[in-house]
Write a structure and sequence with these properties.
Elements (H helix, E strand, L loop, with lengths): L18 H23 L2 H8 L3 H8 L2 H22 L7 H18 L2 H11 L11 H21 L9 H17 L5
Length: about 190
């Protein structure tokens, strides 16, 4: 008689449930899939497989493909805005503050090449999903306010022009980093 337990009687190890970890895994997998394949080309089966989660959990946590894509976009914007807030630009003189913002933006795009690809997809979609995100304007406002304050302080110090539009300035800063990363294959 053998002391080993037959394979049929051995229970498979139970995977502990961790909803936060599963949601984060699905979001991360979706980010890669949407950045690599665009909205139209992304497949929910591939997202579930990459996340190591079943499709039902993806639907449970994020709803349909459109809702998941919106969650990925929102998460991407929240991530870059969190990094910008961490710069604490108000504690630096205007030149140092702008230098830090420009360097951060460029480095963020370099370190996260999925971000320009995701933005490229959303531009192809004519910002169809971005326009539906209720929190997106609130994410942009603090940064625009910070840039306006830096410009004002720089103008008082007679180093920046007074008539600089903070939105247009940020668009220019982002454009330089975006273009460099988004077009590496064709440059």
């Amino acid at each position: 008689m053998s002391d080993t337990i037959p394979a049929a009687d051995q229970a498979a190890p139970k995977r502990t449930r961790n909803s936060a970890k599963t949601k984060a895994s699905i979001l991360s997998a979706a980010r890669v899939e949407f950045a690599d394949r665009g909205f139209e080309g992304a497949r929910v089966d591939a997202i579930a497989e990459r996340a190591g989660a079943n499709k039902r959990l993806r639907y449970h946590y994020f709803g349909n493909k459109e809702d998941l894509y919106g969650a990925v976009l929102l998460d991407a914007y929240q991530e870059i805005r969190k990094g910008e807030r961490a710069l604490s630009l108000d504690q630096y003189d205007p030149i140092q503050a702008m230098d830090r913002l420009v360097r951060f933006t460029f480095r963020h795009f370099l370190a996260n090449p999925w971000f320009p690809r995701l933005l490229g997809t959303e531009n192809i979609e004519n910002a169809r999903f971005l326009k539906t995100l209720p929190d997106i304007k609130a994410l942009h406002s603090p940064l625009v306010g910070q840039i306006a304050e830096i410009i004002a302080r720089g103008n008082e110090a007679k180093i920046f022009r007074r008539d600089v539009d903070p939105v247009q300035l940020y668009i220019s800063v982002a454009a330089l980093g975006f273009f460099y990363v988004s077009n590496t294959a064709t440059l």
